[in-house]
Design brief:
The complex is a heterodimer. Chain A is mostly helical. Chain A contains eleven helices and three strands. In chain A, strands 1-2-3 form a three-stranded antiparallel β-sheet. In chain A, a hairpin with a 2-residue loop joins strand 1 and strand 2. Chain A starts with 7 loop residues before the first helix and ends in a 22-residue tail after the last helix. The C terminus of chain A is likely disordered. In chain B, the strands form three sheets. An eight-stranded parallel β-barrel of chain B has the order 1-2-3-4-7-8-9-12, surrounded by five helices. Chain B has a two-stranded antiparallel sheet with strand order 5-6. In chain B, helix 1 runs antiparallel to helix 10, helix 4 crosses helix 5 and helix 9 packs parallel to helix 10.
């Protein structure tokens, strides 16, 4: 049976199944990357966890929020500032870099695109790759190649069918065009960031510490800073409300802006839409 | 290594999993032998989420502790609660699970706390029936824990220790002995806690709970409240040492804390003190 001989609804049904199978292939390929039966101890370093969840931008965001919670920085509007002497209060190199950047005042976007992000990248990326929690560049390239081939195949089938339809003087191809676009967009949003192990590690932290989300008001005291940072790292900024932590308004995606996802998850996060990004909680696809 | 040294070597010390101190627990996992997970704190998690605990068990031993079954009751155990606990236990796959010898609901009302039933033959029978139901649902026999009580149950025809012994033997189970509960009951009923502990079937003890409470006052006067909000008292550590001296089987000691959490180094200090108490008791056996 030649699928290109199928008529309208039958071909649409065939193409829908093909699309689902394509998504399945990409997902299974990702599942095959870096999978290990050896389970390691759950992480407790908030900045490392934030990096695992959403990359250097999320790590920098959690650092900046943590420093503000500790009153090492102040937030006015969108700008985060600090006094020159505060850099001495940093507990690690990433905090020191963020504090230095805040001396002259910086927005979260500036921090996330500046030297702080480079430091986060240097501190965490290779470590998480070596622990098989995020994909290596090689694995990522392979996954992107598979994704490109699958998208190419899906597009080719649609284009061939559309050309055949036009040749046969049929012009009702809009449903197929829309379906093809949806499939391509869905596949294109696979980001390929975490390994399956990395996604499991993050999900485990969410399960183990889920009950803490109902106790966020108890973390206002700066002595609870580690727990505050940990909660932000695991669940994202959305886990804490601005009524309890007013300064977090500067760390949340602006309502009505289109950048809610792009800011915190990179440009191709698969599971975020609109304002429901959950502070960079790009789960699902290992993204 | 002598037999006694081997016994001592197998003693374990751990604590209850609470997310509030979870970071400390994970950071100190090398020094913690076992974690006790409260079943009712996990019933909202789906099976995939519960696997977080079973994966954790590759790093540390895990037991599940239930609160809601109300096994020691003349009312049949609630199917809904048993199934919820069974799902948690079967998803986490702990080395064992436990429940209290208490009732927690009447026919139509949840009490919200662990209450002591009359210590009588009638409640022994009904408790054994409930344990059988729970065992069938979960797939393994629960370890059974003595509770603290501020009243002497009306209608009792035997002592708590005799009642507990009959149930433990009838159910072919083991005793999860709560030393803090024995201590609290002894304080409130003006008895000697060492003597009271020795009345329990100590040869059937595998797990031990320790915790802290405080002296409270109400219209009836002073009493000791086992609230799990305070450090473990020296008296309870002394009971633990005595228990380690009295029994030959390995003991697994679990520190319970339910709020007012101190810095984790203080919790760690209490765990170390439990280890020392065990070691001293074992030393006395040699």
């Amino acid at each position: 049976m030649n699928p290109f001989d199928l008529y309208g609804p039958q071909f649409i049904a065939f193409y829908s199944v093909l699309q689902m199978a394509s998504v399945g292939v990409v997902y299974l390929f990702w599942r095959s990357l870096g999978k290990s039966e050896n389970f390691r101890r759950p992480m407790t370093d908030p900045y490392l966890i934030a990096y695992l969840r959403g990359g250097s931008k999320e790590a920098v965001k959690v650092v900046a929020a943590s420093l503000t919670h500790r009153r090492c920085t102040k937030v006015r509007g969108d700008t985060i500032t600090t006094e020159a002497g505060e850099a001495g209060l940093a507990t690690n190199q990433l905090e020191k870099t963020v504090l230095e950047a805040c001396i002259s005042g910086a927005t979260l976007r500036q921090l996330a695109n500046g030297r702080s992000a480079d430091v986060a990248e240097r501190l965490f990326h290779q470590r998480l790759v070596s622990e098989h929690l995020i994909l290596s560049e090689d694995q990522r390239q392979k996954a992107l190649l598979v994704k490109a081939l699958v998208i190419g195949g899906l597009l080719a089938v649609a284009v061939i069918k559309i050309l055949l339809a036009i040749q046969r003087d049929k012009h009702n191809v809009m449903v197929l065009v829309i379906l093809a676009a949806i499939g391509v967009i869905a596949l294109a949003k696979f980001r390929f960031w975490r390994t399956p192990n990395g996604t499991t590690a993050l999900k485990d932290l969410k399960s183990l510490f889920g009950r803490l989300k109902s106790q966020t008001s108890q973390l206002a005291n700066s002595s609870q800073n580690h727990q505050f940072s940990f909660l932000l790292a695991v669940f994202g900024v959305a886990a804490l409300t601005t009524s309890e932590y007013a300064f977090l308004a500067a760390f949340k995606p602006k309502q009505g802006s289109n950048s809610g996802c792009g800011n915190s998850c990179g440009s191709s996060c698969s599971s975020c839409s609109g304002g429901s990004c959950g502070g960079g909680g790009c789960g699902g696809c290992g993204s | 290594m002598t037999q006694q040294e081997k016994e001592s070597f197998k003693d374990r010390v751990g604590l209850g999993w609470r997310p509030e101190i979870g970071i400390g627990i994970l950071q100190q996992l090398d020094k913690i032998d076992i974690i006790e997970v409260v079943a009712e704190n996990c019933t909202h998690l789906n099976n995939a989420e519960l696997k977080a605990f079973s994966r954790l068990s590759s790093q540390v031993d895990i037991v599940v502790h239930a609160l809601s079954l109300g096994l020691a009751s003349t009312y049949p155990v609630s199917t809904k609660h048993v199934e919820a606990v069974a799902r948690v236990v079967n998803a986490i796959k702990p080395e064992a699970w436990s429940e209290h010898l208490a009732f927690v609901r009447t026919k139509d009302r949840e009490l919200g706390h662990l209450a002591a039933p009359p210590w009588s033959e009638e409640t022994v029978e009904s408790t054994l029936t409930n344990i059988q139901v729970a065992t069938q649902a979960v797939g393994s026999i629960p370890h059974l824990e003595n509770i603290s009580t501020l009243y002497h149950p009306i209608g009792s025809t035997m002592s708590e220790a005799d009642w507990t012994t009959e149930i433990i033997r009838g159910a072919k189970s083991t005793l999860l002995i709560d030393l803090e509960n024995i201590y609290a009951n002894s304080r409130n009923f003006k008895t000697d806690w060492f003597t009271e502990m020795l009345k329990f079937p100590l040869a059937e003890v595998k797990y031990v709970h320790i915790a802290g409470g405080h002296e409270a006052t109400d219209d009836a006067g002073e009493y000791f409240l086992d609230d799990h909000l305070h450090p473990v008292s020296e008296d309870v550590f002394a009971l633990l040492e005595e228990l380690a001296f009295r029994v030959s089987q390995p003991l697994t000691v679990i520190l319970e804390r339910d709020g007012n959490y101190p810095e984790f180094n203080q919790t760690n200090a209490e765990l170390n003190q439990a280890r020392k108490a065990l070691a001293k008791g074992r030393q006395r056996r040699r």
